[in-house]
Amino acid sequence: MNKYDCIVIGGGPAGLSGALTLGRARRKIVIFDNGTNRNRVTQESHGFLTRDGIKPQEFKNFALKGLETYPSISIFNETVIEINRDDQNDLFLVHTSNNKSYITEKILLSTGIQEEFSLSQIRQYYGKSLFSCPYCDGWELRDKPLAIIAENDEHINHMTKLVFNWSKDLIVFTNGYQLSNKLRNDFENKKIKVYTAVIKNLYGNHGNLESIELETGENILRSAGFVVPNFYRPNKFAKQLKCQVDENGGIITDGAGRTTANGIYIAGETKKAGPSSLMIAAADGNKAAFSINMDITLDRF
């Protein structure tokens, strides 16, 4: 069985960036990626310097092409299903869905997060006309008649005030949540209408939103909008490996990718279980790789 210096779980910008740095440090690396990166549903990725507007898969292919220069990096399209720690030898045994096992000294968790929505219909429009990040997609929706779909004061307040920078034509949909009087007054002063009725359905074609129907029978025209999903980690690896978390569910690190579990490092959205940009995730992977390489160096010197 081959032994690796580090196994990278997750081939998004954080994992690929980390692997690149480790490959350049002549470390033997394997990346496991099953193609479930959450930005795969979007048409374009924005905000990454020199690659603004690139298609997510094109961005990923470009990154993978760059890794081909380094012969010590392997990439497997497999899903990791279990990680066991070998305390006696200070190693990890990684098992995949293909009934294969791999040994490694270090692990970089960069599996990202996934969204879940209270309205299943949002999936039909998510990534095409409904989005969760104004910094990523606000420019393309500027001055359009937009919907804000969120279901508590904190999320409604944050998203609405932020999106107001890109379009003043906003309508807030709370899907049954009763907005606080203060927030309602703030919105009324900016001529932002609020509907608190439960949403019955979304209408549109080929992922392009056209209107939102409420249980009251009202049907409000909107061409696009922003939603606030709930985010979750798609696996329990950090918990199973006993990485400590803070009161907000973020995984505690030393600021450079090291978790409280020896040999386990983390980068990207996995760390805070919240959304991040491509550029920040890639920087996280780079930073974690510096830590991994230094720790390997000190272990062996």
From TrEMBL:
Q: Which Pfam families match?
A: Pyr_redox_2
**One GO molecular-function entry:** oxidoreductase activity
Sequence intervals crossing the membrane = none
**Start and end of every FAD/NAD(P)-binding domain?**
4-149, 177-285
Which keywords does this chain's UniProt record carry? Flavoprotein, Oxidoreductase
Q: Does the keyword Hydrolase apply?
A: no
> Per its Swiss-Prot or TrEMBL entry, what cofactor is needed?
FAD
> What quaternary structure, including any partners, is listed in this protein's UniProt entry?
Homodimer.
* UniProt protein name: NAD(P)/FAD-dependent oxidoreductase
